[in-house]
Amino acid sequence: MIASLSQPETIDAAPPRARVVRLAGRYGLAAVGPFAVSGAHFVASFVFLRTLAPADFGLFSFLLVIVPFALSVSGALLGASLGATLHSWTKLDGPELGTHLKANLVYAALAACAVTAALTVSGAGLALAAVLGAYGGLMALRWFARCLAYVLERPLRAALSDLVYAGLLMAGLFALLALHRLSIASGAMVLLAAAAISLSFFGLDYLKRQVRPGNGSLRAYAPIWRDLTRWSLMGVVLTEITVNAHAYLVTFLAGPKAFALLAIGGLLMRPVSLALTALPDRERASMARAIAAGNGAHAFQTVKEFRTAIGAIWLATVLLAGAVLMWFPELLLKKGYGLHDVLIVAAISAAIVAVRAFRTPESVMLQAAGAFKPLADAGVAASILSVVSTLALLAVAGPVASLGGILMGDALMAARTQGLARAWRAAHG
Length: 429
Known about the structure:
Elements: H1 2-5, H2 16-51, H3 54-84, H4 95-121, H5 126-151, H6 155-178, H7 184-200, H8 204-211, H9 221-254, H10 256-268, H11 270-292, H12 296-327, H13 339-368, H14 372-397, H15 399-428
Helix pairs in contact: 2-3, 2-6, 2-11, 3-4, 3-5, 3-9, 3-10, 3-11, 4-5, 5-6, 5-7, 5-11, 6-7, 9-10, 9-14, 9-15, 10-13, 11-12, 11-13, 12-13, 13-15, 14-15
């Protein structure tokens, strides 16, 4: 299995129509699961927006910021190194995988504690925060399993787990609605159950190996951290500061109720945001194999295909969001949310996501090439600009204006990433 993963990849010389069909099938398989999850989260957010108080909706929306961040950290610490170290693996039950599995257990526990602490600071009760923290830890375990499935070219496993998670979440929420028992607490229990059950669909053998990794050691992770993942983690943290400074600043300083309005913009752009989180795991592995084989041209081709797919998702999302807000706003909004404010938030959110969609393909290519430190360095100025401008706009003009600081930080990060990508292409083209 491992040997077959390291075979050189070549540029696709098929006719244009065949390439389009292949591209649609490739991204369709990679996207079906993430879009199911995105759809389930959209439904959950919509239901909570319509039924819960703004403060509770804001709290749930904040959860959908910090848990994806935890998953991004998992990808940086573990997912990226899976792809980058693949060529050195000798067998699936070797110490390399055991080391990653042990590190994953430690990280999942830390993620659960971090989510619990963040929600407690934002105003959630300790019991609710603990349940949602456990949800965050299980989602971190599931995310690593997805990354491993993509590395081992088993995307159906990842898609099945995503579909099960999405189906259980929606079924649970609709059952609570029918029983008139929906609350932020009962919704949290549904999230926890969906995460646990969907994790089991990676197979009993995998779960046993995850709980009892056997060979490998945490000490063996030290060189991976030193040479690779510390820079990857720094890049993820700086990116999070750049793109979500408003969520943390508004929620911690003004409370989850103030964040609720901004969360509507994130809700409308959710399909693109989740695609930008999920699809890189597949593309990073593909690019890493091509780069390791000395086939930079294939990596460049993948960048173009990736941008085409993300661009199509962004356009479809914006058109759908515009149609809902212009013709059916009553489906989304209830008393307490002004349509004018929501339109402004949606427009700024669409611009922010467009900038992210533009820079992500090159960023993933640079990660596949191991250029984590340059990416992290590029993110320093962007994160500083994002935090300072967001905080200033929040203080001077309020929560909605604070989104402008995020847009400025994202734009600077995009410019820096494009510069790094051009330099890498010039050296390896």
